[in-house]
């Protein structure tokens, strides 16, 4: 019996620790459509390549905000890019010179100069055992 308990304890100690992240997106224009969220684990593809994102999420808008909890995230450095997609087609509408028509945002409410922020400016840490929450106010 003690041997089984010891094996279970050692197995639990060797299991990778994964965390949860609560993402709250505020300041949507209205309650139409969804909020698209890209969660990146490194700078490759950040901020607008869904195929290179660690996770791609689509969350319904309610009361001019969207909220989701993402589970089973390995500890590490992440960054988020997001936008309000009122017609839920998965594409950000852009105007002249590629300027976004839809509201958008980044983790840490980071902003860039003449373009999106860097991964490093938007980066945050996921740590097991800590409350991991990101609040993003769309622009």
How would you characterize this protein structure?
- The chain is mostly beta strands and 139 residues long.
- It has a single domain (18-137), classed as Immunoglobulin-like, CATH 2.60.40.
- 12% of the residues lie in helices and 38% in strands.
- The strands form two sheets. Strands 2, 3, 5, 6 and 7 form a five-stranded antiparallel beta sheet that branches. A three-stranded mixed beta sheet has the order 4-1-8, with no helix packed on it.
- The longest helix is centred in the first third of the chain and has 13 residues, at 2-14.
CATH hierarchy, class? Mainly Beta
Number of helices: 2
Q: SS-based structural class?
A: mainly beta
Shape: globular
What string gives the helices and strands in order?
Answer: HEEEEEEHEE
Please compute the radius of gyration using only Cα atoms. 18 Å
CATH architecture verdict = Sandwich
Uncertain runs = 3-8, 10-16
Multimeric organization: single chain
Structurally, how many domains make up the residues? 1
Helix content: 10-25%
Tell how many strands the DSSP assignment holds.
8
The average pLDDT score comes to 90
Q: CATH topology, which one?
A: Immunoglobulin-like
- Give the biggest sheet: 5 strands, antiparallel
**N/C terminus separation:** 59 Å
Query: What amount of the residues lies in strands?
Result: 35-45%
């Amino acid at each position: 019996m003690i041997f089984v308990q010891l094996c279970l304890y050692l197995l639990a100690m060797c299991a990778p620790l994964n965390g949860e992240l609560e993402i709250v997106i505020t300041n949507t224009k209205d309650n139409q459509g969804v909020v698209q969220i890209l969660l990146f684990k490194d700078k490759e593809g950040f901020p607008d390549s869904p195929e290179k994102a660690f996770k791609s999420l689509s969350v319904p808008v309610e009361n001019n905000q969207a909220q989701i909890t993402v589970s089973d995230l390995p500890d590490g450095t992440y960054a988020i890019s997001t936008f309000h997609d009122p017609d839920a087609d998965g594409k950000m509408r852009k105007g002249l010179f590629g300027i976004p028509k839809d509201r958008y945002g980044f983790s840490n409410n980071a902003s860039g100069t003449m373009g999106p922020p860097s991964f490093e400016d938007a980066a945050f840490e996921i740590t097991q055992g800590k409350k991991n929450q990101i609040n993003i106010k769309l622009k």
